[in-house]
Amino acid sequence: MDDYIKGAAAQLIERGRVLTGKIPRDLPRDYDTLAQTSRQKINAQLDHLKELSESPLFGHSSYRAERLRLFKRIVAEMDILETVAIAALDRAKVDDHRLNALLERIALEIRFPLVTPVVTTLSQQYFHIHPDLNLMCVPLTEGQFLLHLPDLYHELAHPLLVEQNDPVIEPFQEQFLNALRYVLDYLGEEQAKEDRRRGPVQPRFLLRAWEKAWVKYWMTEFFCDLFATYTLGPAFAWSHLHLVAKRGANPFDVPLTNLSSHPADDARMRAMLGALDISGFSAESSQILQRWQSFLTHSGAKSEPEYHRCYPESIIHGLAERAQEGVRATQVRIATRETKDPVHTLLNDAWKTFWKDSGSYVAWEKKAVATLFDSTKGNPS
Amino acid sequence: MSYNGLHSGLYARIRDYAELLDEVLIGLKAHTSSPNDEKRQKLAHLFLGTPSSAPSNLSAQFFQIFLQSEQDIDANQLSEIGQALRSTDVRANVIERLEALALTLENERAGMLAKMRGHG
Q: Which residues of chain A make contact with B19, given a CB cutoff of 8 A?
C-alpha cells in the first residue's frame, strides 16, 4: 500500500493543480467567496497529501489505518470540490448571475447574518445547499418561475446550524438543541412506557429508529422549514404543498425499517401552519390547511397510530415555538402582515394570484419574473 | 431539500469529527501529544460536552447526542474518554476505543458520501 498511496497522492496533487487552473478569472464578484474557498480547500488537501507521502511517521506500520482513512477523506474532498464547487464556477452563466443577485436581495431583506451563499443552477436534485462551500444548488430553470423559490429561504437556514463561534447565531443553535432535547425527552418517556409494559420488541425498536432520525436529519429539516416560514410567511407553506402534491410520497410516512432522511410531509406542514399562527397569519394558515386537507383526501393517504406517536401535536407546536424564539433572537427579520419587502411581497403575491385565477397565472408569472430580475440588476454585490 | 443537500451539512460535521479523531490518535500513538495540545483539548471538549457555564456549542452537543443515539455509548463512557484525553496518561484501552470510534465515524462518512452521490 505504501507505493500505491505515494503514486496516487502524486496523481491527485496534479489533479488539484488542474482544478485550480479551471477556476475562471472573469466572473462577477458574487463568485469571489466560492472561488477563494475552493482555492483554499484545494491547497489544504494538497498539503495533506504531501504530508501523507513524505512524513516518515506514515511509513510506520502503526499508522496504516489512520493514513488510509486520511487518504480516503482527501480523495472525497477533492471529488466534492471538482464535481460541485469548480463545476459551479466553470459553468456559471447568466441564469446563475440572476439568481445570485436575487439571493443577495433576499439576504438583505431578511437581514441574513452570514455571508450570502453563491447560487448555481447545476442541481440535479431539487434545491440543496453545501454549507461547507456556502454554495446553493437549484434546478436549471427554477429561476424562471416563482412558486418554488420560497425554498431558497429554507436553504439559507442550513448554514446557520453549521457555523461555529458566532454569538449572533448561537441563540438559533441553542433553540435547535433545546428542541432536540425536548423531542429526545419525549421519546425517552415513550421508551420507558414500553419497558414497563414489557410488551413486544417492535415498538421499542421503532422508538430507537425515530430517535436516530430526529438527531441526524429531522430536526434540521424542521428548523429550516420554520426559519423559512418565519422569514417569508405563507408562501413557504404553499410551496411545501406544491412540492408534495407534485413529487411527494406518503405524507404520513413513518419509518418502520430503514432510517428516513425526511420527516413526514404532513408533520412538516403542521409545523409550518403552527408557525404561521404564531406570527399572525392565522387566516392564511386556515386557507392552507383547507387546501392541504383537500390534497390529503385526493391522495387517499391515511395516518396510522405510529404517525401520531412519532409526531404528536405537542412536539410539533413546541418546535414552532422554539424556532421562533431562535429566529427572533438572531435579529433576522420575521415576516408579518406589515412586511413590504419587494421579494417577500412578490413571492406571497404569486401564490395569491395562483389561487385567484390559476388559468391566467402563467402569463402573470412571466411578467413578474421579468420585472423581478430587472429590479435586481442594480443590486449591490 | 434533496437527500443530497440534507446530507452535506451532516456529512461535513461527521468528516470533521473523523479528521480530528485521527489527528489526535496519531499524536497519542506517536507519544508526541500532550493534554495542552489544541486538537486534543478540542476532542476532549467534544467528549465532555459543554459545561453549563459556557456558551452553547452545537458541534459538541451534537457529537454527544450523535454518539449516544447512534453508537449506544452512554454519557459516562463519553466523559471517561474526555477525562482521559485531559490527563497525561492515556491508557491503551482508551486508544483502542478511540480507534474503534475512528473507524465507525469513517464508515459513517463514507456511507453518507455514497448516498449523496446516489449510491446509497
A: 70, 73
Rounded distance, CA A95 to CA A141, Å?
8
> A381 falls in which pLDDT band (50, 70, 90)?
very low
Domain-by-domain residue ranges, chain A?
A: 2-90, 160-357
Count CB atoms within 10 A of the CB of residue A148: 17
Query: What confidence score (pLDDT) does residue B54 get?
Result: 54
Amino acid A118 reads V
A residues 14-43 closer than 8 Å to B (CB): none
What cell numbers appear for A14 in the block? 496534479
Q: How many CB atoms lie within 10 A of CB B63?
A: 23
pTM: 0.90
The 3-state DSSP class for residue A129 equals strand
DSSP string, A59-80: GSGGGHHHHHHHHHHHHHHHHH
Give the whole-angstrom CA distance, residue A308 versus residue A301. Answer: 14
Say yes or no: A127 contacts chain B, CB-CB below 8 A: yes
Question: What does the alpha-carbon distance between residue A177 and residue A78 come to, in Å, rounded to a whole number?
Answer: 32
Distance between CA atoms of residues A215 and A101, nearest Å = 34
Nearby residues of A82 by Cβ (< 8 Å), 6 or more positions away: A15, A19
Using a 10 angstrom Cβ sphere, with 0-12 exposed, 13-18 middle and 19 or more buried, the burial of residue A151 is: buried
Type and span of the H or E element at A139: strand A135-139
Cα(B10)–Cα(B3) distance, integer angstroms: 11
Cβ atoms A350, A368 nearer than 8 A: yes
**Dihedral angle sign, alpha carbons of residues A302, A304, A306, A311:** positive
Helices (H), B30-57: 38-48
- List, in sequence order, every residue forming a beta bridge with A163; answer none if it has no partner: none
B10, B18, B29: residue with CB nearest A73: B18
Q: Looking at this predicted complex, what is its ipTM? A: 0.88
